[in-house]
Specification:
alpha+beta; 38% helix; globular
Length: 259
Amino acid sequence: MRRPRIADNEAMSKQFKGKTCAYCAVAGASDTADHVLSRQLVAVEHRGTIPKVPACAACNGKKAALEAYVNAILPFGGRHSDALGNLTANVPKRLERNRKLHRALAAGQTRVWSREASGLLVNATALPLDGERVEQLVGLIVRGLMCHHWGVALGSDIQVDTLSLTKRGEAFFDQYAKLNAKQRIANDIGEGALVYGGAQGVDNDAISFWKLSLYGGVRMVSGDAKHSTSSFGVMTGPKAIAERAEAKLANGKYIIRLT
C-alpha cells in the first residue's frame, strides 16, 4: 500500500517542477512543491488541506529557515484546538535539535501584563520573539496564497508590506475588506492554525489586502507591554505606486484628517 503513495508523491512533485516560483516569480525556476503553511504547525489529520505551490530551491530554503524558528516558538502561545497537542508532542523535539534557541528562550522568559479581548488584564508568561522573522514568514505565506488562489506570482517590482496589527490597525484593514474587489477568499487551515481573508484589487491583480492570524491568534506583546497584536495585515502592490505615494507625502501633498 505504501509504494503507490510514494509514486503519487513523486508524480505530484514533478507537477511543480519547472514552473514559476510562487515566492520570487522567476519563470521556470521551481524545483519542488512547497506547503504554503508549514506542515509542522498543523495536526496530521488536517495536513491534506494545506495548499502547495511551486518553489525554487533558494526560496524554499529561506522559507524553511523562518519556519524552523516559528515552529519552535509559536505553539507556546497557541489558542486553537490542536495547540496543546502540538506543543507537548512536537516542540520538545524541535528545541532539542536547536539548543541555542532553547537557551535563548529559557533566558528570556518573563511575565507580562496582557489585556485580553474581553478587556481583562492577565499576568502571563512571555517568551522573547523576533517579530521581524515572523512578519517575513507571513509575507511569504501571502505570496504563496496569491499564487495558489489567484495564479499571481509577485516579482521584484511588487512591494509586500506586512504589519503586526494593533486594534486600530485591525479597524483599518477591516475598512478595506468592505471595498470593491475583483476576487475574495476566506479560509481556515487546520482549524485555526492559519485563518485568513484576502481581497484582490479591481484594476491590478498584484494589488491585494490580507488579514491573517496564526495558531488561533497567538497574542504578541511589545517590549514595554503597552501594545499587543494577534493578527497580521499584508498589503501588496507595484512598488511604483508606493513610491509615488511616499513622494507625495514627503512633498506635503497629503493632509491628515482629524475628524
